[in-house]
Amino acid sequence: MQLEAMYQEVILDHYRNPQNKGLREPFEGEAHHVNPTCGDEITLRVHLSGEGRDATLTDVSYDAMGCSISQASASVLTDLVIGKSVKDAMEIGDAFLELMQSQGKAEPDEDVLEDAVAFVGVSKYPARIKCALLGWMAWKDATARALGEAS
Amino acid sequence: MTSRPGLLPEEIKKDFPLLQRTVRGGRPLIYLDSGATSQKPLAVLDAEREFYERHNAAVHRGAHLLAEEATDAFEGARTTIATFIGAVPGETVFTRNATEAINLVAYALSNAATAGPESERFVVGPGDEIVVTEMEHHANLVPWQQVCRRTGATLRWFGLTDDGRLDLEQLDDLVNERTKLVALTHQSNVLGTVPPVELIAARAREVGALVLLDAAQSVPHMPVDVTALGADFLVFSGHKMLGPTGIGVLWGRRELLETMPPFITGGSMIEVVRMEGSTFMPPPQRFEAGSPNVAQAVGLGAACDYLSEIGMDRVHAHEEVLTGYALERLAEIPGVRLIGPATTESRGGAVSFVVDDIHPHDVGQVLDELGVEVRVGHHCAAPICRRFGIPATTRATFYVHNTLADIDALADGVRGAQKFFGTA
User: Fold this and answer.
1) pLDDT class for A1, splitting at 50, 70, 90?
2) pLDDT confidence bin for B356, thresholds 50/70/90
3) Which whole number is the average pLDDT over B270-288?
4) Does the annotation mark B380 as catalytic?
5) Chain B contact set for A12 (CB, 8 A)
6) What single-letter DSSP state applies at residue A122?
7) B373 touches chain A (CB under 8 A)
8) Is pLDDT of B2 > 80?
9) Scanning every residue of chain A, which has its alpha carbon at the shortest distance from the alpha carbon of B364?
10) What are the residue ranges of CATH 3.40.640.10 in chain B?
11) Which residues does chain B have within 8 Å of residue A125's beta carbon, measured at their own beta carbons?
12) Fewer CB in 10 Å around end: N or C, chain A?
């Protein structure tokens, strides 16, 4: 059945037990993103140590409401990027974006994407791709702000 | 449950080619999203196709036979559609959809101050008030917010009661001598609520305010007579009433349409054009600049004929039975909360609900897997969700082709979602 392909156990686990959830201080960048078609929202904060693209993502905290896909995706995101350099995390973000644009055909690299490989099933459903990307887009935005690249 | 008195024959489904297809691995399609857009019966598809195959030409111009036939088809459709709502063709303006029809009136108000003395009735400015409700579709909210921004007028609104009705306690305060226009829905697209339009219109008349009804969810589903409602304007969309996309209607009282400044100007709406300035046609052409959506108007005319043949009383009775059954079936599921009136009293067939601990997107995904197509989200009426403290709802809407079995499938699907997500 297709449902199990979309809602893999990993996704449901992250949905039921979200990692790193809650807004925390300190932070240098914050972004609020919404999915206007369904009303899902996320506020996400980024705390950096260091300068520029070599800076480390010491903390990524967030508060969100939305469907299982958007909630699980935000949780997986924080697990993946906290502790990484901005540069490395952006590469993971690019890999995730590529996965979500693959219409279910990608064979994602589990070494890079870890739990996020579970979202391959979601990429078959155009209406849900935005759900999966909501947290990632907010994270990119908040990181750019923390680096002073965006206002 | 297979039948109840008042239901239309199930054979009606055969009139809709799309409803014969299967979805998601060969499952029969159960379409419960007519409130977003309706499927089209063969009669409508045939009418549109026949227009292109036999009569297509530019309307209201040219002296050849095809131009005559096309004009007859277009104006014939206007008469059919006008009659369908108890109006006359001269008061029935074609627009692209209900949203454009509302904007046509909103821009008339915005532009009235510079449109000359005949448009004085429509001028709004600081100190004036426009009244809407908290249950409006964005189409009947945002244009009025914009009018107020442009003119300095103040936007006010009716709130909602916990059971999804309009809170009328402040009626006399909200609609007062400063009110220029009251814009409200004739049937909420989320809650199903049918507000007491006559009561509100009577108060508006007392204070000299205009009344605009968003009938996008009422004209398709119940008998509507524009002369009986006390409204000055009424708008609806063709695609929600078995007609094509790209065609909608603004009905307005003639004396208003005659003095309202036009919204979109250009060809087809002018009388005399000189380099120094132009004069405009009387309504409805005054508001129909540019090449109209002729085949779509013809299709909408065919949709009105199709509905009239069934009878709008019977359409309404059918949907009332379905709505009552849906309310029963959903209310008996633990963990399901209905958003909107719990009975069919002054209520149409839009049934919104939330399922504890499952986001509507996820409910919709499970239903879709079962071939049950519903709408999830805020349904272009976000303030309703905010009012009820929920991010979104799952919504089922009904039409002539739906059956009790469709609603059984919906209820089973909701229970299936609860099982899948482990919440029940």
Assistant:
1) low
2) very high
3) 96
4) yes
5) 421
6) G
7) no
8) no
9) A67
10) 46-308
11) 365
12) C
Number of neighbours of residue B271 by Cβ within 10 angstroms: 11
Q: A30 in contact with B at a CB cutoff of 8 Å?
A: no
Identify the CA nearest to B174 among candidates B204, B214, B142, B208: B204
Share of chain A above pLDDT 70, in %: 98
DSSP characters for B71-105? Answer: HHHHHHHHHHHHHHTT--GGGEEEESSHHHHHHHH
Query: Over the stretch B200-238, which tens digit does the pLDDT of each residue have?
Result: 999 999 999 999 999 999 999 999 999 999 999 999 999
Burial of A25 (0-12, 13-18, 19+ CB in 10 A): exposed
Residues with Cβ < 8 Å from B84, sequence gap 6 or more? B219, B304, B307, B308
Ordered alpha helix ranges (H), A101-148:
110-113, 126-146
Q: Which of B148, B304, B380, B385 is catalytic?
A: B380
Residue A151 pLDDT:
47
The CATH fold of domain B10-31+311-420? Aspartate Aminotransferase, domain 1 (3.90.1150)
User: Under a CB-based contact definition with an 8 Å cutoff, are residues A42 and A135 in contact?
Assistant: yes
DSSP codes, A8-40: -HHHHHHHHS-SSBB--S--SEEEEEEETTTTE
Confidence of residue B62 (pLDDT cuts 50, 70, 90): confident
What is the ipTM metric for this complex? 0.90
**A106 shares contact with chain B (CB less than 8 Å):** no
The CATH number of B46-308 is 3.40.640.10
Where along chain A do its domains lie? 2-146
* pLDDT tens, position by position, A49-70: 999 999 999 999 999 999 999 9
Q: How far apart are CA B228 and CA B221, in angstroms?
A: 17
Bridge partners of B339? B352
Maximum Cα–Cα distance across chain B: 73
Question: Which of A2, A38, A41 minimises the CB distance to B361?
Answer: A38
Q: For A69, which residue in chain B has the nearest alpha carbon?
A: B362
